[in-house]
Amino acid sequence: MSISVFFRFLVGSRLQEGWVDFLAPQLYWRIDPPQQSYPVLLDWWVEQNTGGRHIYAATALYQIDDSEQNWPTSELTDQVRAAAFPIHDEK
Predict the structure, then answer these.
(1) How far is CA 50 from the centre of its chain?
(2) Per-residue pLDDT in tens (0 to 9) along the chain, 91 residues
(3) Is 3 helix (H, G, I), strand (E, B) or coil?
(4) Nearest Cα residue to 71 out of 36, 29, 24
(5) Phi, psi (degrees; rounded to nearest 5) at 80
(6) Is cis: bond before 33, omega within 30 of 0?
(7) pTM of the prediction?
(8) Is the sign of the CA dihedral 15, 46, 27, 59 positive or negative?
(9) Contact 76, 66 (CB under 8 A)
(10) Cβ–Cβ contacts within 10 Å for residue 38, how many?
């Protein structure tokens, strides 16, 4: 079963019927690369949220460390900013 079929079957109907109080997607990606990034994935969740429920996007706090192998602290502040003001194109 593909992810999109799973989503429509299990999650989509629950969102549309109002059976879900809030969404908490685990968005453990950086803002870059653009194809699969924190804001792109967050926008996808916003588009699926036809019931207008709150979205509390999880971030990868364990990655925040200004060392070379981890993410800079600015990544977290940028993700918090993106979650507070998601970019969503109305269609």
Answers:
(1) 15
(2) 455 666 666 666 677 777 788 888 899 999 987 778 899 889 888 888 888 888 899 898 888 887 778 889 899 999 999 888 765 554 4
(3) helix
(4) 29
(5) -65, -40
(6) yes
(7) 0.73
(8) negative
(9) no
(10) 21
Kindly report the backbone phi and psi dihedral angles of residue 71, in degrees, each rounded to the nearest multiple of 5, phi listed first. -90, 150
Distances in whole angstroms, Cα of residue 91 to Cα of each of 32, 47, 88: 25, 10, 9
Cβ neighbors of 7 (< 8 A, separation 6 or more) are: 48
29 alpha-carbon distance from chain centroid: 9
User: Residue written as tokens 């926008």?
Assistant: 43
pLDDT of 79: 92
Burial class (CB in 10 A: 0-12, 13-18, 19+), 90: exposed
Structure tokens belonging to residue 47? 């588009």
Q: Residue 30 in contact with residue 71, Cβ under 8 Å?
A: yes
